Prior knowledge:
Layout: E1 2-6, H1 10-19, E2 25-26, H2 29-33, H3 40-54, E3 60-63, H4 69-83, E4 88-93, H5 96-107, E5 112-117, H6 120-129, E6 133-137, H7 138-143, H8 148-159, E7 167-171, H9 176-184, E8 189-192, H10 194-199
Helix pairs in contact: 1-3, 4-5, 6-8
Erythose-4-phosphate binds near residues 6, 171, 172 and 191.
Amino acid sequence: MKLFLDSANLVEIEEALVRGFVSGITTNPSILSKEEKGDYQKHIHKIIGLLEKYGVGIPLSVEVFTANPAEMIEQARGFMRAFDYPDLYVKIPVGWDELGVIHELRQRNIRVNCTCCMSVNHSILAAAAGASIVSLFYGRIKDTGQDASAVVRAAAEILKVGDVDVELLVGSIRHPSDVMEAFLAGADIVTVPPPILRQM
Ligand code: E4P
């Protein structure tokens, strides 16, 4: 069981790190856009500074911000150079052409968190293409009328079979009960926004 924090806010990140319950951080462009305007790279460096202050090996996910697959590969390589953080995961949204991006990054030893997965089949394809983390979006799956815990349970069972080296992360958490449901369904990691952590 690993709890991650779904935030790019420096105060919230430090509040969680100091309490010791967080073992990773996930960000995305929308989360980053809520922070002080300016150079996003400087902001990521500040997050990394906090992670290094509180421990070693704390995973950080940063998402590409282009829809073009070739540019995704270039951005991912740029993140690795610019941030020089050994526990960086590059978030690539799931998609047909994006599976090729995941495969290419795996070949280059860049770890991918395949994000925005909405189904078991998305999870299977992302893992098979070489993602190190597969992120299922709990709240958004619920919004489509599906049983999100059943989706997580099926994905967890399938991904644990065989020799696929992947962790199942559940994001898009909207209620404290989503966290419990996701872990009970077999999630390895649940990433939680700060207000929900406080409610927990
Ligand atoms: C996970 O890594 C994502 O950042 C996140 O949980 C997105 O979910 P939302 O867009 O539904 O808030």
